[in-house]
């Protein structure tokens, strides 16, 4: 496979500015908060229930979160994060991981399972330098997954780094050692194609040393 023809590294979602602040939380009961979020997504996004009800299920006490795919190559799938985050510590302890892609418009799901390795620092620096200054500032100030007193604490750190960049130039916002890339090297793929009669197609590829064994699974 050649490098991807789509420039995924430079795709940037605009997340907006809807803050989640302790003092304005609509409920301090997590079930009620989930209910409020779910209803808001249903009523305000124009998404259908079919679009918002799929949920990624993980078992054996793993923990899941979304990241942005930065690259896929013939050896695996890369994403960037903070090595000292919760996921970073979990991956240090156990590098086995899975990724789940779900593309509802085409009724496709791809499951990838394998072992995660850290990307070479040179590549991580490259990704870091492609990020907008505001994203670099936010990542540099954040000890990801650490408990912080409030949003103001983070905003104050951001102001300090904005001032530093204004004084010394944006190159002063260097990549912290704790920020870098991960590369998931797959040993298992499953491609799922949904069918309207629910007799879905599931094609699995499992690595056996250096060949991929193909199997069909019952839906
Ligand atoms: C759409 C989306 C994209 C995200 N992309 C990233 C990412 O590329 N890297 C990252 O570290 N966190 C990303 N996050 C935040 C993570 O889901 C997560 O909150 C964060 O990495 C901390 O996870 P941890 O405490 O389990 O380590 C993203 C979240 C969403 C919803």
From TrEMBL:
Recorded family membership: Belongs to the pyridoxamine 5'-phosphate oxidase family.
Every Pyridoxamine 5'-phosphate oxidase N-terminal domain range: 61-160
A matching Pfam family: PNP_phzG_C
Protein name per Swiss-Prot or TrEMBL: pyridoxal 5'-phosphate synthase
Gene3D superfamilies in alphabetical order: Electron Transport, Fmn-binding Protein, Chain A (2.30.110.10)
GO biological process, one term: pyridoxal phosphate biosynthetic process
Essential cofactor(s): FMN
EC number of this enzyme: 1.4.3.5
Keywords: Flavoprotein, FMN, Oxidoreductase
Pathway linked to the protein: Cofactor metabolism; pyridoxal 5'-phosphate salvage; pyridoxal 5'-phosphate from pyridoxamine 5'-phosphate: step 1/1; Cofactor metabolism; pyridoxal 5'-phosphate salvage; pyridoxal 5'-phosphate from pyridoxine 5'-phosphate: step 1/1
Pyridoxine 5'-phosphate oxidase dimerisation C-terminal domain segment(s): 179-219
PANTHER family per record: PYRIDOXINE-5'-PHOSPHATE OXIDASE, PYRIDOXINE-5-PHOSPHATE OXIDASE
Function: Catalyzes the oxidation of either pyridoxine 5'-phosphate (PNP) or pyridoxamine 5'-phosphate (PMP) into pyridoxal 5'-phosphate (PLP).
Enzymatic class: oxidoreductase
Any one GO MF annotation of this record: pyridoxamine phosphate oxidase activity
